[in-house]
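Late entry, written up from scratch paper. The run itself happened at the end of the previous shift, but nothing got recorded in the book at the time, so transcribing now.
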Amino acid sequence: MKLLSTRLWHSITPRMCFCQVTRTGSTEKESSSLTKPTSETVKETNLKIMFFGTDNFALETLRKLHERQRLKVINHLEVCCISDSGTPVCKYAKENGLKMHLYPPPIDSGQFDLGVVASFGKLISSSVISKFKYGMINVHGSLLPKLRGAAPIIYAIKQGLPETGITIMKIKPKKFDVGEMLAQERIEIPRDMLRSDLTHKMAILGSDLVCQVVENLEAYEKTATVQDNSEATLAPVVNKSIAFIDFHKQSNYEIYNLWRSVHDIVKLRCKWGPTNTVTRFKVVHPPWHIEHLQLDSTKLPGETVFLKVNKKQNFLCIKCRDGWIAVDEIMYGKRKVMSSRDFANGFLRIDKTKPLPPSENNNSIAMFVKDEET
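Output as recorded:
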């Protein structure tokens, strides 16, 4: 049976919220039926919960659970971290007097009713899972079984998906993100949304949804759905190699989506062909900003031109496999960040009476090439 966020649980007491983000120009509207919890709008559970998490995505869920503890919706709350080195979850626990444990937590069987996990980053052993009366549940940042793994939000944007979502699932030992699904919510991904913004919205959505499940755990468990492994896709941990651009193989939209997905983690990189110098881009403009300029489609991938549209608009444009992309805030070698205009003034105005700087891959064409370093 396929899990559907808007139909599967209509017979359950809590109404599932379909959260949709839409943009009209520069305005943004978010519709949601969720309300801020109060003693009148939430259901007492008497549960003793241990929360497992690390980063800001996890922190939002911890805050909501702590709020429910203060409202006496849950009976008791403690926290488990991978280390006490100052993660957002660790800091919050210390600042708010929540008892904190390092993994694996030294607890007895039955001491806690439920474990709640969000962005923990560690495979939890069966010996830990079995100590919780009702097992453990996880807040995962995708519509499982799609995008199993540590980086679902990155891959959702990188792949240009129009939507993603949150899945509340049961934790199983030995494998990540394979447990039965208890609830799902969808969220739209605007074509210009950055990963940092989507992560924040999904953290809020996930924290609200997991609290709905916690408050009605028995009802949600009755409708738990097994994942269809044939539909599974993966979102593994990323490293710096994800940022290496190949203009011969990637389209303008693929490069823009890649930048949106990792903009605050790692800078996209290639090499400036004439000097064989590593160059990074802090900003990649949406392709539709320059599509009306009708740039020459016969240019080679990597070829670069500078366009001054008006006093306020300047674009350093690079030919891709398909279309053109515009970049800004350019980091050439170890130099300070420069604007597209400064880069053009320094590197596109080639004085033919002077030889180019020597390099193994000297190239008189003004173009960017793939950085082969691994």
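The chain has a mean pLDDT of 87.
(Scratch paper discarded after transcription.)
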